[in-house]
Amino acid sequence: MPPLLEAIGLTKHYAVEAGGLFRRTKTALRAVDGVSLTINPGETLGLVGESGCGKSTLGRLLIRLVPATAGQVVFDGQEITSLNANALRAARRGMQIVFQDPFGALNPRMSVEETIMEPLLIHGSRRGATAREAVTRMLDKVGLPDSARYRYPHEFSGGQRQRIGIGRALILNPKLVVCDEPVSALDVSVQAQIVNLLSDLQAELGLTYLFIAHDLGVVKHISTRVAVMYLGKVVEVADKRSLYARPSHPYTQALLASVPATHPSQRKRGVTGQPPITGDIPTALAPPPGCRFHTRCPHAMSVCQTDEPAMRVLDPGHQAACHLLPG
Amino acid sequence: MSLLEVTDLTTSFQTSGGEVTAVENISFSLEKGEILGIVGESGSGKSVTALAIMGLLPRPPARILGGAIRFEGQDLLTLSDRSMQRLRGPGIAMVFQEPMTSLNPVFTIGEQIMETIRAHESLSQKESFGRAVEMLEKVGIASAATRMTDYPHQLSGGQRQRVMLAIALVCRPRLLIADEPTTALDVTIQAQILDLLMDLRDEFGMAIMMITHNMGVIAETADRVMVMYAGRVVEQAPVARLFDHPLHPYTRGLLSCVPTLDQDQDRLIAIPGNLPEPSRRPGGCRFSARCSHAITACGAGIPPLETLEPNHAAACIRVREIA
Amino acid sequence: MTGLDRHSPGWATIRRLLHHKLFVLGCVLFGLILLLAIFAPLIAPVDPNKLSMRTKFRPPGSDFIFGTDNFGRSLWSRVVWGAQLSMFIGGAVVAINAVLGTAIGAAAGYFRLLDNGLMRINDALMAFPAVLLAIGVTSVLGPSVNDVIIALSIVYTPRTARIVRSSVIVLREMEYVQAARAAGAGHWRILRRHILPNAMAPLIVQLSFLFAYAVLTEATLSFLGVGAVPPTPTWGNIMAEGRQYMIDAPWIITIPGAALMITVLGLNLLGDGLRDVLDPRLRIQQ
């Protein structure tokens, strides 16, 4: 089955001016640098990484919410990076996004009904009574009472606002939904509700997700495959089990080792003497040459400082970009 | 005598809808060198408790309605502002969640550390500089002497949190209150900071109040745990005991709703509903609306914190039946 | 039906405004002047320009409520009709500002390419002190009421545009705007539905102060003799003529001065109240 979405060499550089009063230089913030990945229909691709890795930017690049500096995206068989405005609007029906911040993601002056209905009005697919019926069905699907429709965002809790945002994203029946840290800003007890909701909706509506998060536990729970990003590049991609059982890239290994214990008897901090990684994450303004991770990698060799490693296939479905690996 | 003993602390604050209690009848103690983990989500009152101990609750709109906070035998609520100020630093220190807003952006980090030293000890400029550099090195800032003249914006999130720790610990406090110290940090940096915290605890022997909503951080650091919900204490236990036999339904819910790396579940066991708003709390047990074991009697009155085993207490009238 | 909905943020704001004491006071003061202006034909039937040498320099009393001036004209009539003129000019300037300032500010804030060009022109206009620029415009266009309105609009629109632009720049990055774009919304819909409604708060505060500036500047222009030509009864003209008789007939200059003061004070209090209630920092606390 062909992939639902394919990104090839996707790059986003932000032009930035740096320097003092007299020596202003133009550099580039290399938020995403030559990323290629595929998302298969019906799956959930988890995307993890830390600050500055570019995962949020990548999510927005994939649905053309942010224009790419270079590279291509093919969605549902159609190349979308060079579409004109009208064709792009039509293509947007198939791909939607759920945001992290339940406060900023809803227009405070629009009622719930207006918010969820707006995409329908934009595309003229439904109006008036049929549109309102669609809103009724959607409210039910996302677990909100019908009385919510006339109320305003400030009257709801974070979790409920997130449900509204999900309703808005799904009203057009998209195929792909980019979930950009959808539960990170919620209380722990509410996170589970929303994660369950997303899973249920995926099964019910046949959705495909790109699930961007920094919580490795949540990503493991909901994903089929997982991609790990570091400083604008994808360093490892694998199906969930292989990634968590046999992490091959040193960064993935360090990431997993940094996750706190689940029981006090398995305490790691203050016990083993050294945290999994020392040092801070370099800035995307001046990523290290060669392999970007070499400055913090416990296994760095001399080739790592000069040559960027290519993605190597370790097993079917498991790739990593590291000089240590065969390939 | 415990290092810190909080008895029946109750505070309130003024909202547009009237006066509302923030925390009610909070009681706990902390021994010298012990790490007490305080777990709760937003609205649990954990930060209010910490600020009340530090004397940093803005009053008004907050009010302390009752209770006592005894630090080394002295009731902090009866101290004058001056005395409280002298205590902050060498006695009790605090680090916060957002190092960017906790550090003053217009002063160098060196100045901020030295300011704390000079507020409490009469050292010369040279001596306090030396102490500050020593502290920066201890918290793991490389080339500490040169970094003294850096401004907060020149440092990364992890470095700023280290500086916060340096400022907090430079006067060797007996108690450190850490309010969500790693929540805003990446997981690899969090590991570094937790390691650092434990090392510093070993070296300085201070007690720590570790406030967090992350059970993993609790598992990594705490000796004992106190669980708060909607302004009240619902469970207290030694850490291993809490993870092995949580008694209160909220604690159980909290432990089972977070997906961990060693589990494989189809669906997460979520706690239904939402936290009630402070002005609209139900009578009786505040968790009853979301509790799968709730019965009519739960709405009758607030369940008292009952000690069921040595050191293990829970506030639930059905705790024995559902164990 | 957003604005009329009981739950909407709009209604909550109106309720909060009505509880704000200074706002209500401001409304009362300004409302007083506004009522005088609206009902001028009813309450001041005497022609404000009717001369009568017999009745000149009468102090305020039972015959003439505010007394008469050096030409025997009823000061009451002149001040009331002057109020109407001030309200008209203030209202017109505010209306033009609201439309033009919003259009320019929104265009500059939303379309990055237009920003530089528009703002350079904007800043150039803002560099002139308001009164001087107004004098310059009226000396070119002529001193009729309409030209005064044009002059004041040219002076104040840049300031309004700047305020709208600031709001738009912030709102442009809000995630609900991104969500609308992801759903396929075009620029027009985004501006109309998402950005402008949320940019209203600072604009409304600015417009209330602007009304006061317009009235004050108009009075200044006519006081200096470069505004509406006498015998048009503007407060500025009345005060200019009354200046020479300050010792003998102080009421000629003080009464329109008081009217001006009440208007500006009322508008300032009203604007302060609006700013207190609409300030987003206060809103987050709720």
Defining key terms:
heterotrimer; A: 327 residues; alpha/beta; four-stranded antiparallel β-sheet; B: 33% helix; 24% strand
The average pLDDT score of chain A comes to 90
Strand order of the largest sheet of chain B: 6-7-8-3-9-10-12-11
What's the count of strands of chain A? 12
- How many DSSP H or I helices of chain B? 12
**Which secondary-structure class do the elements of chain B indicate?**
alpha/beta
Low-confidence runs of chain B (pLDDT<50, min 5 residues)?
none
For the report, how would you describe the main beta sheet of chain B? 8 strands, mixed
Structural class, from helix and strand content of chain A? alpha/beta
The CATH fourth-level homologous superfamily of the largest domain in chain A: P-loop containing nucleotide triphosphate hydrolases
Portion of residues in beta strands of chain B equals: 15-25%
CATH architecture of the largest domain in chain A: 3-Layer(aba) Sandwich
> How big is the Rg of chain A?
21 Å
State the name of the first-level CATH class of the largest domain in chain A: Alpha Beta
Strand content of chain A: 15-25%
Assembly of the depicted chains: heterotrimer
Total of DSSP H or I helical runs spanning 4+ residues of chain A: 9
The major beta sheet of chain A can be summarized as: 8 strands, mixed
Q: What's the shape of chain B?
A: globular
**Most extensive interface between two protein chains, with residue counts:** A-B, 46 and 49 residues
